[in-house]
Structure formats: C-alpha cells, structure tokens
Amino acid sequence: MDKSEAIKATKNGAIAACVSGALTLAIFLIAVFTNASGTIGLWNDPSVIFDVLLIFACAYGIYKHSRFAAILLFFYFIFAKIYISIEMGKISGIWVTLVFLYFYGKAIQGTFVYNKIEKVENPNYKTTPKWIYFTAIPSLAIFFALMGIGILTMTGVLPSTKVQKGSEISQRDRSLLISNAIVSKSDNIKYFYSGGLTSILEGGSILTDDRVILYLPDANQELEVYAIYLDDIASVELIKMGNFMNDSIYKVSSYEPDVWLQITLSVENRGDVKFINALRYKVAKATYNNASQRTSR
C-alpha cells in the first residue's frame, strides 16, 4: 500500500463510519419518537446518543489519519454487533457487518502506512507525544474491559444491568432466587432487577402476580426479604429519577403507616418505567377487584 492508497483507505473508512453513524441515528430517532419495543426497541435508549457521537468522532479521526480512532472504531463495531446479536438472540446482517469490517480494517492499515510514509517524507512531521500513548493505551484497555463486562452481564455470567422480564431471567438466577427463599417455585415473576455487581444475591427488586419484593443482605450478610402484597399497596412514589450512572429510586407504601419498601430500578431501556407501570396497573386492578367484591356483598 502506497501513500495514495493509504489516503483512499482512510477516506473510505471515514465514509463507512459516517454511514454507520447516520443509520444508527436514524434508527434511534425512529425508536424514540415511536416509543418502539421489541427488536427496534434496543435503540429506544438515550445512551445510543453516545454511540452516535463516538462513531462520528472516530470518522473524523480516521479522516485525519488517526491510528487510535481507526483501532477504536474497529473493535467497538465488533463489540456492538456482539451486543445486538445477544439481545436479539440471533446473528443477523452478517454480510453487511463484514463489509463494514473490511473498510474499517483497511482504514487501520491506511492510517499506519500513511503515518509511516509521512514520517520519512515530511521533515515537519510531528511524532505522537509519548503522553498520548500513556493515556490512550490504558484508556482503550479500560474501555474494552468495560465492554467485555457488559457482554458478561448479558450472557448471565454477571448480573444484568437492566430490569428483566420474567421470561428473560436465566435458569441459574431463577434457581438462586428459589433456593434462597426469595420467591417460590409457583411464583410468576413479571419483572426482576438486581443491582448486584457479581451476584444477584447482593440485592434486588421483584414484581410477581401478587406482591412486590425487596431483598438485600443485612450487616451480617444474611439475606433479608421484604414484601408488600398488591392488595395492601397505598401508593407508589418516585423518590429520585435515575440516569445513565444511577438507578431510579421508588417508595412503595402500604396502608399501614410504618410499612413501606424503597426499591431501586435501572433506567436502561426504560426498565424502571416498565416495572413501575406494571406495578401500578396491578395495584389498580387489585383495588378494583376488592371494591367489586365488597359491593357484591
């Protein structure tokens, strides 16, 4: 690869990145404005904006022959495709993926060749300062380590970072909940979330057909399980709205003054809203059924 080919490779890589960023942005906007669920609902998440900004930033960096940007985008694209495949439960668009990886791979080669030739031909060529290597390499390592942890949470090796439907809970996690007497085998779990880092036994919140459950370890690391039946719930209040870094906090109060639970829920994919909406619906339904029974008597 000569210099002109290297410039062409980086230019094509930048164009491919812009196409990817534009498609991601378009799907995100459609998902948000239609409040989509299901497959396209994966893009109904404010964190997708970070993806879009990163892709366009890398596109600009590749256009400027940045080796760091080319490598970052190549591996980020791979991690993103693994994430989507796990979420969808299948691998799709393999040929399109290979096309993008081809252009990104050539862009990596192009940036290295371009900088190597420039170093020889251009007397004013400025070498990359050492401090950039000392910051960029650890940053890349941390970034991809976090991406790897994210994939581990999706495969069930680590607790999921999102609120899960009952059908999404792994058999391993379900067995842990049952064996620790947090739920019974007959319980129909509607939604579940654990804020644990390494195990779901570090604490969590559960909604079943008849109650909302909070469990957490006490000072002696013994599990404490608390529950309020739907018939007994007087109110559900938002205490603190969550964000990308923090969970939302809700207070579920009983008709008894001193009986309440404070549950935390992840905002990822609007999981906190789905959990609370389902809870409020069930509480309203239980209240209506009780009122109807009293009237019929």
The N- and C-terminal alpha carbons lie at a distance of 87 Å
Order of strands across the widest beta sheet?
1-2-3-4-5
Strand content: 15-25%
Helix content: 40-55%
Outline, from the CA principal axes?
Answer: elongated
Q: What's the total count of β strands?
A: 8
Tell me about the largest β-sheet.
5 strands, antiparallel
- Whole-number radius of gyration? 25 Å
What does this structure look like?
- This protein is of the alpha+beta class.
- It folds into two domains: 3-154; 164-296, PH-domain like.
- The protein contains seven helices and eight strands.
- It has a five-stranded antiparallel sheet with strand order 1-2-3-4-5, covered by helices on one side.
- A hairpin with a 7-residue loop joins strand 6 and strand 7.
- Helix 3 (67-88) runs parallel beside helix 5 (130-154).
- The chain is elongated, with a radius of gyration of 25 Å.
- The mean pLDDT is 83.
Quick structural summary:
By secondary structure, the chain is of the alpha+beta class. The chain has 7 helices and 8 strands; from the N terminus they run αααααβαβββββββα.
Blueprint of the fold:
Elements: H1 3-33, H2 48-63, H3 67-88, H4 94-121, H5 130-154, E1 164-165, H6 171-179, E2 189-194, E3 204-208, E4 211-217, E5 223-229, E6 233-240, E7 248-254, E8 260-265, H7 271-296
Main attributes?
7 helices; PH-domain like; elongated; alpha+beta; about 55% helix; about 300 residues
